[in-house]
Predict the structure.
Amino acid sequence: MTNDENDKNDKDEKIGFLQRRWVLPAALGAAVLVGGVVGAGVFLLAGSPSHEDRSAAHRAAKPRPAAPAKVDCHVRKCIALTFDDGPVTGTAKLLDILKAHGAHATFFVLGQQVANNQDILKREATEGHQIGNHTFDHAKLTGAPKAKVEDELIRTQEAILQATGTTPTVMRPTYGYSDKQLNGIAKEMGLAQILWTVDTLDWKDRNTALVTKRVLAGAKPGHIVIMHDIRPTSVAAMPGILDALTKQGYAFVTVSELYGGTLVPGDRYPPFLGSPTAGPAPPM
């Protein structure tokens, strides 16, 4: 056997080893698994990848385009219910409630919650809900070093990919805070930033009746409601909220459906908190 043939066999063996160990989703145009990254046709063969390697792979990735909206929100009264900080065990009950009402929602998950709740996350995806990135451990992103911001988002993308086989195209900045650096990183990673227009304050007031009152008082077509599936009081509010808004003719859609599947990576929706029609965000 010639040296060229030996070299070819060695290369084929290494590639085959990587392909057996790694997920290769068309959605990314890259492969991500704890312990390594394959991106843009470059195979990283030595040890664990550096932060720079992982970041470069995600910048080179090609996220899957949003699926066509199932509901035309130009015609229907649409509202987007969103839930932060899960998944947790109680999220399963929330999924039962949403399924019973034929409602879809968007879940902005923490990467650290995924490992112990993979079945719940898979169920969210299977039942037509949208999954978004909410950082790995709820770190504040504004003012943080670039490497820290990228790590928070990349680790969560990787965790969600491992659990569901797909990566999010939306993220929710912690505390609703964003800046130029985060705008740029989100754009590079193919993530639109999703804020909200109705704040239930359910993290503060863990009161089912109060959460219900705030949602119903703030609900308007095109609005985005923020809640937390880690709060049992909010889960308990959902049957009443869904019943009341259904009677008013609302369709419960994901955030991508709300905007017709045309979210632009890096942009904020709505441009800033509290107004779905406020126009461009003020200069940062």
The first helix runs from residue 3 to 21. The longest strand covers residues 77-84. The CA atoms of residues 82 and 92 lie 15 Å apart. Residues 77-269 form a domain with the TIM Barrel fold (CATH 3.20.20.370).
